[in-house]
Design goal:
alpha/beta; Rossmann fold; two-stranded antiparallel ribbon
Length: 220
Amino acid sequence: MPRIFADQDGSRANSPGRHRVTEKKDNKEPLPEPELHALEGVLSASGRHFAIVVSRFNAFITERLLLSAVDGLVRSGAEKKDIELVRVPGAFEIPLAARKLAETKKYDAIICLGCLLRGDTAHYDVIVNEVTRGIGQSAQETGVPHAFGVLTCETLEQAIDRAGLKMGNKGFEAALAAVEMASLREAISSQLSAVSKTKIPRSARNDKPRKAHTAKTRRK
């Protein structure tokens, strides 16, 4: 497709060396969708209970994440009385607190919020790996969804951008992920429960009682 150049005053020209504006053809062709039934969660937090674990370290960032996370839950229908807030010293302590909360089985999802900034030592990499592993392991072993809202940034500017400036707010996104996963977990559990309650005809079972064979003693 030929390039179309524009002069600074907005008039089009065909000569290079001016301000260039390349026109792109919009591809409005819809993407094909698989002909399969998808099991999905919904963004409805009504009647559900959530816990938020937030780090006090880098509070300038984490408090912004917290405010947006609560806002996301409330906008989705959650009641503030159904949101438990737990504060920990730093990001390293988030996985333990999240696991203890998940083990109570009182919450439909746990939201983990923190902020880690790279320094001059390997401390950043060690903490990032441990926090990520711990949160993921807690979710898998307890079966309670954990939303990962821990920022891992190179600079403070990147963290600010992700806490509500240019890149949205990751606390809000984590809240929505928690709501959807809580709903999806319930949907999957309901489906599995319905399958387990399906009765199998006795004629199709392979657990028919066998007749006991008694050994006959012979007298000599």
